[in-house]
Amino acid sequence: MDDKNLGVNELEEKGQLGPEVGQSSEIGIFKEGLRVHPEPTADPLDPLNWPRWRKHSILAIVMYLYFMFTYVTTNTVPSFPELQEKFAISYSQVNWTVAIPALGLAVGPLFWSSLADIFGRRIIFLTGTLIAFAATLGAGGANNYQGYMAARFFQGFGVSPGSTVGMAVVMDLYFEYERGQKLGLWVLAIDTGLLVGPIIGGFIGLVSADWIQWLTAIQFGVLLGLEFFFMPETLYPRTYMLARMPVEISGEAGLEKVADQKKDPAAVELSRTTKLMALNFRPVPGLRHPKAWDALVRFVLTFRYAVVVVVVSVYCFAWYWWLLCVITMIPAAYVQYSPQIQGLLFVGLLLGTLCSEVLASGTLSDRIVTKLAKKNNGVRLPETRLWLAYPAALLSAGQYKFLLAFDIVGI
């Protein structure tokens, strides 16, 4: 086998992976007085060194898929009455058409995550989107409830790489000091998908409930094309390349100096990022690869930490339970309104979501982390991002109290 396609273990066996691999470099690259992480290389194929237009275009594609993550679960809500009539089912049964794709969204990351660390992000995105595209065609053409539910599950399963694999792509592309803003935009995509789905579904439902699925299939088709032509592989053998193509700067230097240190990528004969095949079905070379089931194992092991499990479970359950209850019950609560008007009822939630990105996330989070890191001897701590959770919690509590007061007085 060609050396440029070998993994870390094979390179070690051939004696081509020196002892320096895995050791941190002594160079110091800084931004605003803080050391940057991850450490960049002098390799033009390093995603950290790509031009901003390429990074932002890839981020937009990742956000597109994450938008579809929740969009496919809620865009059918305004067509509930038509689905009930078509399949001769109860309101409880039609509610399950939202829960089943959500199950696919939950199960999918346990399947895709480790595979993305083995074969790369690109092929997982393409495979998942292709599954979601095919499932959407199946949902649009389903003639019975059972077939429709099966298609809805695979819609969720196919689009699920947008979560864990999507986050991994953001980590591949951006330095730590940028990630608050980028991950804020990434989360904004899933939140807007959840709320835009019923708005669009309400108007497309004027044609038919089936056309909601046909439009979704078109959206997946466009996404598949964008992924194939504009989303290169971002999984990068950083430890291996730092040993062979480090940034040659003595002492401390600013991040802008890295651009002057780029070398010929052909100096290292290892297939990576844009030099990999368009459809790469081999493990990405130069990396230690996990087992295919490692994501599931890590998920199970998380339950050893009861505090983490309880806090995350309560937050996720409360958030999804409240939002999905609101979304799925609107057709029953406002039967006097047309599906189009019911869809417009989500505009307020959408505006609130957009405001939260500005006021309690993104760039502001990055600034707070940087400021607190400077007071902590230059060490960034993950928990410093939690400060913006407090005003968000207060605003949410105030909202519930406000709505409760309206309910008490009968408004």
List the helices and strands and how they pair.
Blueprint lengths: L7 H6 L14 E4 L2 E2 L16 H23 L5 H8 L3 H29 L1 H21 L3 H15 L4 H10 L5 H26 L4 H22 L7 H7 L7 E3 L39 H8 L4 H28 L5 H6 L2 H13 L2 H13 L14 H20 L3
Parallel strand pairs: 1-3
Antiparallel strand pairs: 1-2
Helix pairs in contact: 2-4, 2-6, 2-7, 2-8, 2-9, 3-4, 4-5, 4-6, 4-11, 5-6, 5-9, 7-8, 8-14, 8-15
Q: Main beta sheet: strand number and arrangement? A: 3 strands, mixed
The 3D shape can be described as globular
* Beta-strand content: under 5%
> What is the number of beta strands?
3
Q: Mean pLDDT, as a whole number?
A: 85
Order of helices and strands: HEEHHHHHHHHHEHHHHHH
Structural class: mainly alpha
Number of distinct helices: 16
Structure description:
The protein has a 3-stranded mixed beta sheet. The chain has helices at 8-13, 52-74, 80-87, 91-119, 121-141, 145-159, 164-173, 179-204, 209-230, 238-244, 294-301, 306-333, 339-344, 347-359, 362-374, 389-408; strands at residues 28-31, 34-35, 252-254. The N and C termini lie far apart (73 Å). It has 411 residues and is mainly α. The protein is built from 16 helices and 3 strands. α7 packs across α8 (179-204).
Describe this protein with a few key phrases.
411 residues, three-stranded mixed β-sheet, disordered C terminus, mainly alpha, single chain
